[in-house]
From TrEMBL:
GO terms for biological process: polysaccharide biosynthetic process. The lineage of its organism: Bacteria, Pseudomonadati, Pseudomonadota, Betaproteobacteria, Neisseriales. Transmembrane segments: none annotated. GO terms for molecular function: pyridoxal phosphate binding; transaminase activity. SUPFAM superfamilies: PLP-dependent transferases. This is dTDP-4-amino-4,6-dideoxygalactose transaminase. The modification N6-(pyridoxal phosphate)lysine is found at residue 186. InterPro entries: DegT/StrS_aminotransferase (IPR000653), PyrdxlP-dep_Trfase (IPR015424), PyrdxlP-dep_Trfase_major (IPR015421), PyrdxlP-dep_Trfase_small (IPR015422). Pfam families: DegT_DnrJ_EryC1. PANTHER family: DTDP-4-AMINO-4,6-DIDEOXYGALACTOSE TRANSAMINASE, TRANSAMINASE.
C-alpha cells in the first residue's frame, strides 16, 4: 500500500480565485484598492446586523488594532485563555499591557467564565475570548462579567467563521470588536489576512487610521477646504496593517464559497462523531442546539485507557501517512509567558490535561470521503479497535 501522505491541512483555491488575482495583477492595482473595498463590503454583509468590517494583513494585526482602539495601554491587564495561539497574548504586550492567562472549561476548552472572575484586578481592562476550534464561548456570561466590571471585550474569532451563539453569528454579539483570520489553514483564506468587525463607528474609525500609518482623513477634511490629492496629515505613529488587493482577490471568492465549505466541514465532523464514538477518545464538545460550530479544527483527546501516549499516537498516524497536529501547546508552557509571569502547569489544570492528550485530526474541504475513511481506519488500527 503506497498511498500519498495526507497533510493535516490544505486550502481550497479555485480558478475563480486565481483569475481574480491575475486580474489584480493586470490592473496595476496590487495594494489596497477596489478589491479590498469590495471584500470588506461583502464580508460585512455576510456577517450582517449592520456591522462594519475593515480588512487587515493578519488577525494578529487586527487584534492589535482593536485592543489599541478600545484604549489598552501600558500597565493594563487583559484576560486571555492559556489554551490559544501566542497571538492572543502577544498583541497585549505590543501595547505595553500584560496578558493575564486563565484556565479553560474542561469540556469545551473555551475560556472559563469563573476563571475570568477570579483573575479580575483593579488593573483589568479587557477580556479576549477565543472560540476554540470554532465553538462559541459562553458569551452571555462573559459579556455580563465585562459589564459588571466595566471591561472591554474583543473576540479572537480566528477559528469561528462561521460560528453562531444563541442564533447570532459571531461578529454580531454585543462586544467591542471581533477579529477573524484568513491564514492559510483557516476556514477561508487570503494567504495572509484578517478582518476587524464592529458595530462601533468610533472604533472602526480609529482602526482605519491606525491601520495605515496614523493618517487621518478627518483631520484632512477639517483643516483643508480645498483638498489637493497630495495632501494628508499624520495624527499618530500608526501601523502598516492594510490588506493588499492581491489578497482581497482571494477573499472575494473564498467568501462566496464559505457556505459550501462550512457544509462540507459539518458533514465531516459529523462522520468523525459517529465513527469514532466507540473509541477511548474524548470527542469535541457540541454547540448549543441550533447553533453552528465552524469546525476549523476537530480536536480529540486520548483517554488513559487508549493505552497510547499523544506523541506516539501522532507518530504512528504519520507512519500510516496521515498528518495530525496539536492545538494548543498552552501559553503557560512557552518560555516567554512562563518566565515573564512565573507560570506553572498547576495553575491551569484543565488546559494542561487537555494539551497532554489532544490530537487535531485532519478536516478540510479538499479531503475526500476516501481520505476520511483512511483517517478513521488508521485511528482504529492504532487503538486496536
Ligand atoms: C491563527 C490564529 C491567530 C492568528 O491569525 P493570523 O491571521 O495568522 O494572524 C490568532 N488566534 C488564534 C486562536 C489563531 O488560531
Amino acid at each position: 500500500m503506497s498511498e500519498k501522505f495526507l497533510p493535516f491541512a490544505l486550502p481550497e483555491i479555485g480558478e475563480e480565485e486565481i483569475n481574480e488575482v491575475v486580474d489584480a495583477l493586470r490592473s496595476g492595482w496590487v495594494t489596497t484598492g477596489p478589491k479590498t473595498k469590495q471584500f470588506e463590503a461583502d464580508f460585512a454583509a455576510f456577517i450582517g446586523d449592520d456591522v462594519e468590517a475593515i480588512a487587515v494583513n493578519s488577525a494578529t494585526s487586527g487584534l492589535h488594532l482593536a485592543l489599541e482602539a478600545v484604549g489598552i495601554g501600558p500597565g493594563d491587564e487583559v484576560i486571555v485563555p492559556t489554551y490559544t495561539f501566542t497571538t492572543t497574548a502577544e498583541v497585549v504586550r505590543y501595547l505595553g499591557a500584560h496578558p493575564v492567562l486563565v484556565d479553560v472549561d474542561p469540556q469545551t476548552l473555551n475560556i472559563d467564565p469563573q476563571a475570568i472572575r477570579r483573575a479580575i484586578t483593579d488593573k483589568t481592562r479587557a477580556i479576549v475570548p477565543v472560540h476554540f476550534a470554532g465553538l462559541a464561548c459562553e458569551m452571555d456570561e462573559i459579556i455580563a462579567i465585562a459589564r459588571e466590571h466595566g471591561l472591554k471585550v474583543v473576540e479572537d474569532a480566528a477559528h469561528s467563521l462561521p460560528t453562531s451563539y444563541n442564533g447570532k453569528l459571531i461578529g454580531t454579539l454585543d462586544t467591542d470588536a471581533t477579529v477573524f483570520s484568513f491564514y492559510a489553514n483557516k476556514t477561508m483564506t487570503t494567504g495572509e489576512g484578517g478582518m476587524v468587525v464592529s458595530k462601533n463607528p468610533d472604533l472602526i474609525k480609529r482602526c482605519k487610521v491606525m491601520r495605515l500609518h496614523g493618517i487621518s482623513r478627518d483631520a484632512f477634511d477639517r483643516y483643508v477646504s480645498k483638498s489637493p490629492a497630495w495632501f494628508y496629515e499624520v495624527i499618530e505613529p500608526g501601523f502598516k496593517y492594510n490588506m493588499p488587493d492581491i489578497a482581497a482577490a482571494l477573499g472575494l471568492h473564498q467568501l462566496k464559497k464559505l457556505r459550501r465549505f462550512h457544509l462540507a466541514r459539518m458533514d465531516m465532523a459529523e462522520r468523525y462523531d459517529i465513527e469514532l464514538a466507540d473509541l477511548p477518545l474524548i470527542l469535541p464538545a457540541k454547540p448549543h442546539v441550533g447553533d453552528a460550530h465552524a469546525w476549523h479544527l476537530y480536536p480529540v483527546r486520548l483517554k488513559p485507557e487508549a493505552g497510547v501516549e499523544r506523541g506516539e499516537f501522532i507518530q504512528r498516524m504519520a507512519d500510516l501517512g496521515i498528518g495530525c497536529s496539536v492545538h494548543f501547546i498552552p501559553l503557560h508552557l512557552h518560555p516567554i509567558w512562563r518566565d515573564s509571569y512565573q507560570l506553572s502547569p498547576a495553575q491551569f489544570p484543565h488546559a494542561q490535561q487537555a494539551f497532554e492528550a489532544e490530537v487535531s485530526l485532519p478536516l478540510y474541504t479538499r479531503m475526500t470521503e476516501a481520505d476520511q475513511t483512511r483517517v478513521i481506519a488508521a485511528i482504529r488500527q492504532i487503538l486496536g479497535a
